[in-house]
Amino acid sequence: MQPETAMQHEMTQILAAIQAGDTPAEDFAHLKLPDSYRAVTVHADEAEMFAGLDSRDKDPRRSLHVEDVATPELGPGEAIVAVMASAINYNSVWTSIFEPVSTFSFLKRYGKVSELTRRHDLPYHVIGSDLAGVVLRTGPGVNKWKPGDEVVAHCLSVELEDAEGHDDTMLDPQQRIWGFETNFGGLAHLALVKTNQLMPKPAHLTWEEAASPGLVNSTAYRQLVSKNGAAMKQGDVVLIWGASGGLGSYATQMALNGGAIPVCVVSSPDKAQICRAMGADLIIDRAAEGYKFWKSETEQDPKEWQRFGARIRELTGGEDPDIVFEHPGRETFGASVYVAKRGGKIVTCASTSGFQHSYDNRYLWMNLKSIIGSHFANYREAWEANRLIDKGMIHPTLSRSYALEDTGQAAYDVHRNLHQGKVGVLCLAPEEGLGVRDAGKRERLLPAINRFRDV
Ligand SMILES: NC(=O)c1ccc[n+]([C@@H]2O[C@H](COP(=O)([O-])OP(=O)(O)OC[C@H]3O[C@@H](n4cnc5c(N)ncnc54)[C@H](OP(=O)(O)O)[C@@H]3O)[C@@H](O)[C@H]2O)c1
Fold first, then answer.
1. Whether the CB of 353 sits within 6 Å of ligand 1
2. pLDDT value, residue 1
3. Is 348 in the pocket of ligand 1 (CB under 6 A)?
4. Domain boundaries in the chain?
5. Quick count: other Cβ atoms within 10 Å of Cβ 185?
6. Is 148's C-beta closer than 6 angstroms to any atom of ligand 1?
7. Position in ligand 1 atom list of the atom nearest CA 330
8. What per-residue confidence (pLDDT) applies to 27?
């Protein structure tokens, strides 16, 4: 057996302090931080490795590495967190296939902002935009958080030195997604965050459950519920693409929790079953019903939009969607604009199938519909979304978890749409099921927490 390295020894001490469950803050503050840590990375010198391949054939298992990297220096307003668990987001897929651009261009640009941000511009990128873990160190100027706090982190990183971001931090010109447009992300044993990313970890959840909602839950909250998005209200009919996927599984729960009527679009009977388990009963299996919105590479088929719209009306008793929750992009956008109700909203946060959208504008202007762009969430929206999880009103949609060493496979599953809900990654947590601090509350909510498990 290999002798334990200094890094492994220090990580073992950190893990023991966390596992004890009652370690005082002072003891956490005195734990030695290792000089290096295990992390999932992509490499700048491999950014061209998939040149010429179709997106589908670009394999995250080849580009994602698990290796030791140097622990970054801690700056003002920041924290180093011991990461117990993280999760795969679609941005981890984009990073790993270097699409639409290599994330090293983001790191380079960020590196130019200040002396402190220069740390991020490295030939490797530690990725990951979710975490659940424990604060180990806080930098100068941090008062609200201390070593030992059990936290989750949202992924909005802002500098807030300009006026524009002071109504809504998403409008800050220096707005970035942590672990995608910044370095030192959550798919690792340690992470560097700004402390205004931190939120309390819901006590009834395991580490991997707590880590899984973050990015998508906050995004769905702004996109669907917030006044900055679609401002959903009771009784609204909400068409949700990918309703059992990362974003959609939260949008579906929020629609039901908020008294709206979700119409869930999925692509298999299993996924339809998950939507039923969440409490939705208006479901369209797009694969079984065979919608083909594009006749050729360049031409859409309005007859298919009509067939889809008629199906929605059949389910709703003749009503059209007040809100369309969009993210597939090119393949569905023409249909989304067509089926939205007169005066309805199409709210989009992504373009998974292609970002050049086309739609028939007559349906938009003549029917007074609007298209709203939405991106992640500000701190307050992320906090409100996390509060819903903490209150047991919205639940994690974790289907399975992988070891950190197998992150490539986890990202591959999401890239190939082989997954349900969210896919978790165990970082320092040696096994699943740890970190629950309120067992009674968990017991009451267990069936809802487990809806997506192993389906
Ligand atoms: N702007 C932001 O802040 C933000 C935040 C989170 C995610 N995103 C983006 O949003 C997208 C979805 O993320 P996610 O986490 O929900 O991913 P996900 O877990 O893969 O779920 C997306 C679902 O969309 C459906 N879908 C995929 N391609 C489709 C197509 N061509 N037509 C119709 N439905 C399709 C699939 O469901 P079915 O096969 O069951 O229909 C899939 O499960 C990604 O592009 C991601 O980068 C953006």
1. yes
2. 67
3. no
4. 3-217+377-450, 230-373
5. 31
6. no
7. 31
8. 95
Copy the structure tokens of residue 346: 């199409």
Note whether 3-217+377-450 and 230-373 share their fold.
no
H or E segment to which residue 87 belongs: strand 78-87
Question: 214: Cβ below 6 Å to ligand 1?
Answer: no
Q: Cα(320)–Cα(336) distance, rounded to whole angstroms?
A: 11
Give dist(CA 7, CA 11) in Å, integer. 6
Residue numbers of the chain with a pLDDT score lower than 70: 1
Residue nearest to ligand 1 atom 8, measured at CA: 350
Phi, then psi, of 151 in degrees rounded to 5: -135, 165
Q: Which two tokens stand for residue 278?
A: 């969440």
User: What phi, psi does 204 have (nearest 5°)?
Assistant: -90, 0
Nearest CA to ligand 1 atom 43: 245
Q: Residues 40, 187: contact at Cβ < 8 Å?
A: yes
Q: In sequence order, what DSSP letters do the residues of 103-135 get, joined into one string? A: THHHHHHHHTT-TTGGGG--SEEE--S-EEEEE
Tens-place pLDDT, residues 364-402: 999 999 999 999 999 999 999 999 999 999 999 999 999
Q: Single out the residue of 261, 263, 267 nearest to residue 420, CA to CA.
A: 267
| Token code pair at residue 15 | 């893990």
**Phi then psi for 445, rounded to 5 degrees?**
-100, 5
CA 266 to chain CA centroid, Å, is 19
Indicate the class that CATH gives domain 3-217+377-450.
alpha beta
User: Using CA positions, which residue lies closest to atom 10 of ligand 1?
Assistant: 350
CA-angle at 33, arms to 31 and 36, nearest 5°: 155
| Residue minimizing CA distance to atom 42 of ligand 1 | 242
Structure tokens at 435: 């970190």
| pLDDT for the residue numbered 455 | 77
In the prediction, which pLDDT does 4 show?
87
| C-beta atoms surrounding 31 within 10 Å | 20
Which tokens belong to 123? Answer: 């030939």
Asked whether 252 lines ligand 1 (CB < 6 A), one says no
Q: Model-level pTM greater than 0.90?
A: yes
**Residues 414/92, Cβ–Cβ less than 8 Å:** yes
- The residue whose CA has the least distance to atom 6 of ligand 1 is 216
3-state SS class at 426: strand
Q: Does the beta carbon of 267 sit less than 6 angstroms from any atom of ligand 1?
A: yes
- Dihedral pair phi/psi, residue 5, rounded to 5°: -80, 165
Instruction: Tell which CATH classification among 3.40.50.300, 3.40.50.720, 3.90.1150.10, 1.10.3720.10 matches the domain 230-373.
Output: 3.40.50.720
